[in-house]
Amino acid sequence: MAMIIKGFTSCAICGSTDLSKPYTATSGVAFPKEDELWRFCDAPLHFDCLARWPHRERFSRGYFDLWKDDSVLANGVLSGGRAWVLRCGPAKREADPYYAEVRLSDWPMRLYSRWEQWTDFAAHQYREGLEDEALKAADAAMAEVRKVAADLESLSVLRQRMLFSPTSH
Ligand SMILES: [Zn+2]
Fold it and tell me: What is the pLDDT of residue 1?
């Protein structure tokens, strides 16, 4: 996650240091230095600003595609749709992962839950801190995610399937 220094770090889109409005930040850098989107990586971005930002989809897609190319990150993938991916943190086979998360293809945010809190998270807690367009995008993705992992039990089934599928390492 980007390093945030209060009153100093600014939203890379509007340049304001007012981070009392909801914002997100990516972790890592998905674009080369020559790319115009490079300076938005690893920096706070207001949800408000993102909603109106013409580069949002390409920016988000850059991070989303990292999952497919990075075998370490791709390793925890439990399920995915056209516009989202559900994955879990690394853990020993016999232990529960520390977290589960949903990433979207057109918003650079991470819907993150402690593994054991998944049932509440998937039902409504993911909405905390989100509003307007970002919330709409999260609602749409989570409605699909709930079809495959509505609660902790179904999430665990997905993980077992991943662990014991012949393609998993
Ligand atoms: Zn902003």
Answer: 57
